[in-house]
Amino acid sequence: MQYQVPQFIEVEDKLFGPLTLKQFIYLAGGVGIAVVLYIFIPIKFIAIIIAVPFVAFAIALSFYKINSKPFIFTLEAAVGYWLKNKLYIWKKTTKKIEAKKEMVDEGPSIETLLAPRLSDSRLKDLAWSLDVKERLDSSPLAKYKEKKLSFEEEEKERVEFTKNYDLGAKGHSS
Fold first, then answer.
1. By CB count within 10 A, which of 1, 30, 32, 155 is most buried?
2. Stated pTM of the model
């Protein structure tokens, strides 16, 4: 079973010639207010001057668009902005600038050479020192230093390493 999908659902129906129902109501209201003012104000020139803004407002409501949206949406947003409470969060505070003490350059201390201070948090420092110590203990260089080989044994390992390296390099090149 097939169903027809409605299309152009954002387009309002034209009920009064080229006008939609909303446009017709806005224009009818503006012209109605102008007629009432013209009838009840004895000086016709003043009645026309007072009625022109009402007609202009009705025309703006009917036809004027801002950013492809009807003028009524902009008007609604403006009225809502002016009537609703506003919450201001930002408050500027002035900070006092303290004069820095003159630092005497004594050179780096032993503590900063061994483990640089990364942050003000002791927990972060502890985690960093544990990670670094763990990596240093598990490195191949540390294991090599622990062995304490004689000169002959070092020479044998160096020759064996060079042979293995050469064999690996030749195997990858072909």
1. 30
2. 0.46
DSSP class of residue 93 equals -
Q: Where are the alpha helices (DSSP H) in 41-139?
A: 44-63, 71-83, 110-114, 122-138
The three-point CA angle 142-143-146 to 5° equals 90
Provide the CB-side half-sphere exposure for 167 (13 A, CA): 6
User: Model confidence over 81-130: pLDDT tens digits?
Assistant: 999 988 877 777 777 777 666 655 566 555 555 555 555 677 777 777 77
Alpha carbon 127 to its chain centroid, in Å, reads: 32
Give dist(CA 66, CA 60) in Å, integer: 10
Pick from 65, 51, 53: which is nearest to 23 by CA? 65
Six-digit token pair at 20?
């939609």
- Give the C-alpha distances (Å, rounded to integers) separating 127 from 52, 58, 61, 107, 131: 77, 71, 66, 27, 6
pLDDT digits (tens, 9 = 90+) for 53-92: 999 999 999 999 999 899 999 999 999 999 998 887 777 7
* Cβ atoms of 88 and 59 closer than 8 Å: no
Structural contact between residues 48 and 35, judged by C-beta atoms closer than 8 angstroms? no
Q: Is 16 helix (H, G, I), strand (E, B) or coil?
A: strand
